[in-house]
Structure formats: structure tokens, C-alpha cells
Write a structure and sequence with these properties.
- The protein is α/β, with parallel strands linked by helices.
- The protein has 2 domains: 15-152, Rossmann fold; 158-300, LD-carboxypeptidase A C-terminal domain-like (Glucose Oxidase, domain 1), CATH 3.50.30.60.
- Helices cover 26% and strands 23% of the residues.
- The chain has helices at 31-41, 62-74, 90-93, 100-104, 116-124, 142-146, 148-152, 181-187, 210-222, 251-258, and strands at residues 15-19, 44-47, 78-83, 108-111, 129-131, 158-161, 170-180, 200-206, 231-238, 266-268, 281-283, 286-291, 296-300.
- The chain has a 7-stranded mixed β-sheet with strand order 6-13-12-7-8-9-10. The protein has a 6-stranded mixed β-sheet with strand order 2-1-3-4-5-11, with helices on both faces.
- A hairpin with a 4-residue loop joins strand 12 and strand 13 (296-300).
Amino acid sequence: MKSLIAPPKLQEGDKVAIVAMASKLNPDDIQPAIQLMRKNWGVEVIVGESVSASYYGFAGTDEVRTRDFQQMLDDTSVKAIFSARGGYGSSRIIDRIDFTTFQQHPKWIIGFSDITAVHSHVQSLGFQSLHAPMPKTFMKDDYSLRTIEPFLFGTGMSYEIKPDKSDRSGWAEGQITGGNLCLLAHLVGSPSDISWDGKILFMEDISEYLYNIDRMMIQLKRAGKLKNLNGLIVGSFTDSKENDEPFGKTAYEIVAEHVAEYNYPVCYGFPTGHDRANWAIPCGRIASLEVNPLKTVLTFQKIIS
């Protein structure tokens, strides 16, 4: 298996765009990120109309968000597109987007959480995208922010974390894919769904009831999405909630139960998701995962361009 096509690496002076594909935000919240990108990365930053738009909880109507994202995809002078934030809404517009120009002139698309829907769709077209902090979350963790640069600017990257008591040891290699568990479950059977066979999956979530985490894992298992993985990376399950009648298991215990019958390595506690630490992961790139009692190492294939 090969890596999916990687968009060209950024160069100093390139133009990057920020759009809001999902929930609305206060434009002031992303000003520190804009200043950082201009100063530290040396790129020109343009901000789409959706960043200042509002329609109920969304960053403008579906039409506004579609038009904004489409414009940035079709503008070949724009070399990367950041989603300003997540929330909810990208699934509502993804089928309206024409990726024809993008396929001829690919560019990095960056975000996480609700943007999982966009990542999966881009992978279905054969291209990599970057699951990473968004402008609204840039300042939460300095190291997480710094993990974006190696992928956008074309250098290598490898991560090492301490073991977790729930880990299952082993070694795996394959394209890496994943994102928010809720979105991954909702994408099953949609045009944006992709095969996970032979891949390393990563997952995370926030503010979900524990019984619903169980239900989503059952959905993925019944759909055959878990049985042919090469490896599994379990990130943060932030602010998981109990019902009045407790479910009784932690999020990690729920995941472990549903993958117990499979033999691939499983890493728990990886810094991806809605906690402060949210390390960048290039969806669609070949990675190797080593899980042992001493450490977990995730290494990404270097792209030569």
C-alpha cells in the first residue's frame, strides 16, 4: 500500500486561507493564529466570509459556507485551507462541493473534530489532508502547534509517548486514517466513507455519553470497519459523561471490549483530540506503529517532492 497523494509543501510567501465550515465563531478568536502564521511561517493569510458569518449556530448558511470553501478550493493561488474551528456543519455541505479543481491542484486542508467528514472525503478522492489544531485552538498547546509545520513544509516527523496500562503490544504499518468517533460512525455508508482495511485507525471524541460511545463502537463493528485494521490509536475522550444510571465502563474500557477479539496493536492515550495536546496527523500517509511495554512510537513515511 502506498501513501495517498500529498499536496505540495508550503513555501514562504504562499497564500493560505481560513474558512469556517461548521459552527460560528468570534473572528477575534483567530487573530492570534493569523498573526502567528504571518510572522512565524511567512505566509499570506486570507480570511473567508464564513469566518464572520452567522446563521443560528452555523458560520453562515449552508450556501455561504459552501461558497466560501468552494472559492478557496478553486483559487489555485491558495496553497492550504484551514478550518477556523469545528463544532457541527461540515457534513451538511460536503456533497455540495466540487473537488474537480482541487484534484488537479491539490492543497492541504487542515482541521479536526467535525472536519473529520472533510478529511474522509478528501481521502476518498486519493489525497492526504492534515488532522491538526485549527486557528481557534492554535494557542492551547505550543508543541501541538509546532507539529503542524513539519507536514505543511515537508520535513519528517515521528512521535513517541509513554505506554498506557491498556495498550496491546505489536507492530503495524499502513495508511493512517481516522478522527472524531462520532463523525466516523456517521460517515458509514455515505459517499465520504472509505475502507479501513489494512489501515491504522485513530479515534477521539468529546462530551459523549459513555453509552453512546459504546453504541458508536458497535455501529463500526457491525459495519465491519474494525476487523481488518492493522492497528488502532485511541486518543482523548474528553469530558465523557454518565447517565443517571451509570454505564459503568470508561471510554477506554469500552473500546477495549469491542476490539478484544482482534490481534492488531492498540495504543491508548495518544495526544490527539480535544485536550490541550492535539498532535498533527497526516491522514492518508503510510505510518508505522510500534506498541511495547516501554513506549509507543508512531513514525510517518517521509514524502519526497
